[in-house]
Amino acid sequence: MKIVSDREFRNEPGRVREALAQQDVVLTSRGKPYAVMLPVSEAQNIEEVLLLASRIRAQMALSSVRAKATQCGLDEFSAAEIDAEIQAVREQRRTLSTE
Questions:
Q1: What is the pLDDT of residues 19-63, one digit of tens each?
Q2: What's the pLDDT at 39?
Q3: What number of H helices and E strands is found in the chain?
Q4: Cα separations (Å) of 16 from 36, 38, 48, 53, 69?
Q5: Count of CA atoms in the C-beta half-sphere (13 A) of 13
Q6: What are the strands of the beta sheet with 2-5, ordered from one edge?
Q7: Cα(38)–Cα(48) distance, rounded to whole angstroms?
Q8: Helix, strand, coil share (%) of the chain residues, nearest 5
Q9: DSSP state, 75?
């Protein structure tokens, strides 16, 4: 993995492209990572690569939700408690929409 700043990417795109042929590249802005570049060959189906990337984003979002639930103690709810909470929220929404 190579770490590349915005400035380096802007000023030397050819060098970054060469690095990308060998390894993944992490783009940073002011020292903070914000994107990952992966090498893609002509033989690969770009739609398939993008689908996999969207699955990774979904998995990251799910992990974040689970971590937040654990922090709030919500990970110990039983299935019946979860169903009851969902039903209560639905009833609240119905009441608000009829007013």
A1: 998 999 999 999 999 999 988 888 788 888 899 999 999 999 999
A2: 87
A3: 4, 3
A4: 12, 12, 24, 21, 40
A5: 1
A6: 2-5, 25-29, 32-37
A7: 13
A8: 65, 15, 20
A9: G
Distance CA 61, CA 55 (A): 10
What b-and-e string marks burial along 10-37, b requiring 16 or more CB atoms within 10 Å of the CB? eeeeeebeebbeeeebebbeeeeeeeeb
- For the stretch 56-97, pLDDT in tens is 999 999 999 999 989 988 888 888 988 999 999 999 999 888
pLDDT of residue 18: 93
**DSSP 8-class letter at 74:** G
Cα separation, 47 vs 25, whole angstroms = 20
Encoding tokens for residue 67?
């971590």
Q: Where are the beta strands (DSSP E) in 20-74?
A: 25-29, 32-37
Residue with tokens 């990251």: 60
